[in-house]
Amino acid sequence: MAQIDTAIFCQLGSLSADGYFIFELKTSRFVYLNDSIAKLWELPLDDIFEKPALLLKNIHPEDADHVVSCYEETLESKTEKKYEFRLLFNDYEKYLRTSVFTLTDSTSLYLLGIVEDTTIMRHNKIHIEQINSRKNITLEVLAHDLKEPFGMIKLAASSIEDSLNHTGDLKVMEALAFIKDMCARNLLLVRSMINREFLKSSAIEIGKERADLVWELRDVVRFYKRSKLGRTKNIQFTSSAETIYLRLDTMKFLQVINNLISNALKFTADDGFIGLHAEAYENTVLISVTDNGIGIPEELQAGLFDHLPQTLRSGLKGEESGGFGMGIIKAIVELHRGKIWFTSKVGVGTTFYIELPK
């Protein structure tokens, strides 16, 4: 390793709040560590030099296998790699992101890299994603809850209008016509707002980070269960594992799940079943959204993801279809290098499947 390169790297490390390291594979020792590494791990620097394995003790137990696989992948590929993992302390955890490089000289192989504390950024991102996800669910619930009273008002106005047809009171008739028109306009407004929000928040590039899929899906179902929609349907979530880690753009992917559940709600009768399941395999994860609703007619199935006008249907209670939701769902899944498909039978129900790589 050229001395000038080492000197520059170490000089950068001494000035940086991020951790800098050089690790020699031949001796299994650190050639260089800056003070920031010790601060990140909350260990004395001399102790880390003496016993490098001390760094492993603070790795979050759920991330231990992940860290080992990252180490092995770096040695095998010998190209720049970026990884994320967590440290666990007594009552809190830290999120770290590391960039690792390999260098060789005539006698040995070295790993060198930079470790960044992303805890605050990660917590902020999780908080924003939760707000955005719940916003979309809330809008969907709001549209459902508003449709019933608006519909009842419109029905009452129609009934009164029929009764007044015999009296010829033009002022009252005009007022009732105004009420009916406003109800119709506001229902369209709510649905249009939801469609625009879904399109706007889905049409940008994705930014994937490591996330616990089980926690995210359970949170979505928990929110639905607390809503009025949850009290009219039997919504359940199951998983083959307590935690399943994937690289996701969580905000975008939850849009997919929310849209599939929303569609299931529209086409499933009250007291019907809607199930969300995550199954972990060796290299993939299979997510399914199942309902026992009215099903999709065979003649509509081929064009479901293609924005075809003939595939657009109103829900059981007259809920409008946005006309582009399924196309966006497919696009987001494919941006995650995944696949989406479905099975459906009229009168039996529908299941959507999403397969994602680990």
Automatic annotation (TrEMBL):
Which GO terms fall under molecular function for this chain's record? ATP binding; phosphorelay response regulator activity; phosphorelay sensor kinase activity; protein kinase activator activity
Q: How does it sit in the membrane?
A: Multi-pass membrane protein
Annotated localization: Membrane
**Source organism, top-level taxon:** Bacteria
Q: Which residues form the PAS domain?
A: 18-78
Question: Major location, coarse class?
Answer: membrane
Q: Which GO terms describe its cellular component?
A: membrane
GO biological process per UniProt:
osmosensory signaling via phosphorelay pathway
What keywords were assigned to this record? ATP-binding, Kinase, Membrane, Nucleotide-binding, Transferase, Transmembrane, Transmembrane helix, Two-component regulatory system
| Domain (Histidine kinase): residue spans on this chain | 141-358
What EC numbers are recorded for this enzyme? 2.7.13.3
Catalytic activity, as annotated: ATP + protein L-histidine = ADP + protein N-phospho-L-histidine
Q: What is this protein's name? A: histidine kinase
